[in-house]
Amino acid sequence: MKMKKYLSLLLALALLPNLAACGTEDTSADETGDGSWAVYWYLCGSDLESQNGCATADLSEMLEVQLPENVNVVIETGGANAWQNEEIDPSKLQRWLYNSQGLQLLEEEDAADMGDSQTLYEFLDFANDNYPADHVAVTFWNHGGGSVSGAAFDEKFGYDSLTLDEMYQAFDAVWPADREDPALELVGFDTCLMATVDVASVFQNFAKYLVASEEVEPGNGWLYSGWLDQLAKDPGMDGAALGQAICDSFYQGCQAVETQDRVTLSVTDLTRLSPLLEAYEAFGQEALNAAAENPGFFAQLGRAAAQSENYGGNTREQGYTNMVDLGHLARQTAQLLPSAQDVCDALADCVIYQVGGQYRSEATGLSCYYTYSGDLDDLNGYLIEGESAAFKNLYSYALTGQPEDEDYVSSLGIGSLPQLRTLADTDWDGAPLDVDDNGIAFLTLGPDAQNILSSIGFSLFYVDEESDQMMLLGTDNDMEADWDNGVFHDNFRGVWGSIDGHMVYVELAYDGEDYNLYSVPILLNGEAYNLQVAYDFTLEEWSILGASQGLDDTGMASKELRLLQPGDQITTIWQLSTYSGDDDFEMYAAEEFTVTDQTAFGETALPDGNYAMVITMQDAAGNEAYSDAVTFQCEGGEITTTTVYQ
Q1: pTM of the complete model
Q2: What sections of 469-557 are H helices per DSSP?
């Protein structure tokens, strides 16, 4: 996380003569029509502020900018149990004005839930009434969770968040929805995961431009001293230019603190969104027709989604955001669905600018929902918040066997939907493995595999029969797959991931053409984190990108990307169970070591001992099955298969 100083904020607050002056009698803009700008900043501090002072840091950046008379920033603060400065009161909901005269406290009231639509409405209504301008930007600051979970998670009110329908209600009450002539110049999210087609669909009714990130943002977030300074120097700019300034300064700020490798930020021209929404719906309809004709389509779609760039984790250890890059998913399914090209063309037309790190090279600016987790509760959230009727019915069919709206399906000329085949309909759980003459284990399932499985991989275990223990070392998909015949060979090389030679639990997070991404659960100075690791196929190099804390139960994504520092203490985490019993695996703290300036991730040969491998299977509904195990012995770098369970 970028460690920004906030002393300048405290100093500025202490010296301002008008700080305690409540009311708005002489502080609003005198007139509009002169190219004036107003930024309405909904600053829900949450634990980002109470634990790390991130909101205070961004306020400090704002105060570095000298604004002209025709630019106002109206701010509402709240949502945090504590603020890392002496002026903002965590027990209050406070409204502030920053303009050419400095920072002023306008009014305050008892704390209210910033994750509630009424609180948002009251702030927007206040700002619009008292500080109108020719060009208005509304910006959200907080955590984000994507299309289903929304943004602005209020720490004081159980991390309640604003869902997309709540945002729509609040905006519509102030600026009635008008796609032809939206009232606002720009809506921006200095949050995680909110550059989605569903978010864009909501705000096309209110704004010309959307600025948001597909991926989790690092804790440094937007660089307020950068984009506000550009606005101050050129108030004649429009929303497109301001959006580009936000993106460029954000990326420059990330480069300054070395958090740029996985970032994304994009500008979407919402006035050009309608062709994308039409193409997206047609894309979903074609997918629904394909699934109705052959339910094996779901397995093909699942395999395409697994190889598409996705955001916020989507693994067991990190949690599931179920957000995937729309353009990359379309490209991966182009041979299955010809309408995918229309999606790509429309996306390229409305996403007018973006920045991104080297390990987010497939990002096209907007993500969409895909049910990686197979979780029905999350699906139900999408059925409420999602944009596409076709995809709602597609995913409802995939997970429940029934569409969300039978009348909609009938309107597409689709009759009764065929019954889905899942892993529950096979006898593949406990399927035997064979070993070829070279000692390589393989699984034979037959041609049905390509119509049922959305993914296949393996889990690796260390086995200690004497102490009656098994340790799960992690998952990978380094296999040779013959989908036509349903035969899968392991390609295991006898090495595993390690940090400074200490073997770690490794979970594959993204399998790409140019790079793979992995998640490694660790304790970092005693706190649970997931270390983010990349392997670059071109450079043939591993990189540690930083550590994050994934999603919590509310769907809120951690915004902090914690870079490793010399002196940090890392404790490796394993999953442990008995060898003889059928008890569940539990997390186990293993080795502890100290980070140095030479700390690196790499591969290390498995230590001498006994190991087991199980091939894991998953279908599009999230069902899983596991083959029987093959055990092997490592000794001096040589692998010898010892037992195949049949």
Answers
A1: 0.92
A2: none
Facing residues of 279 across strands? none
Q: What are the structure tokens assigned to 398, written together?
A: 């995939």
Backbone angles phi, psi at 476, to 5 degrees: -160, 170
636 — alpha (psi -120 to 50), left (phi > 0) or beta? left
How distant, in Å, are the alpha carbons of 19, 126, 267, 367 from that of 310?
A: 45, 38, 19, 8
CA torsion sign for 389, 394, 399, 405 is positive
pLDDT given at position 10 = 47
Quickly list DSSP for 340-405: HHHHHHHHHHHEEEEEE-GGGTT--S-EEE--SS--HHHHHHHHHH-S-HHHHHHHHHHHHSS-S-
Which residues of the chain have a pLDDT value below 50?
Answer: 1-32, 646
Task: Report the alpha-carbon distance of residue 503 to residue 607 in Å, rounded.
Answer: 9
Q: Are 533 and 543 in contact (CB under 8 A)?
A: yes
Give 304's DSSP letter.
H
CA-based max dimension of the chain: 87
pLDDT at 254: 96
Q: What is the pLDDT of residue 406?
A: 95
Q: No. of H helices and E strands in the chain?
A: 17, 32
Q: What is the pLDDT of residues 596-621, one digit of tens each?
A: 999 999 999 989 999 999 999 999 99
Answer yes or no: are the C-beta atoms of 111 and 92 closer than 8 Å: yes
Q: What are phi and psi of 577, to 5 degrees?
A: -150, 175
Residue ranges of domains in the chain, CATH in brackets: 36-272 (3.40.50), 275-420 (no CATH), 424-644 (no CATH)
Q: Which residues contact 424 (CB under 8 A, 6 or more apart)?
A: 623
pLDDT on residue 643: 66
Determine the Cα–Cα distance for residues 457 and 443; give it in Å rounded to an integer: 11
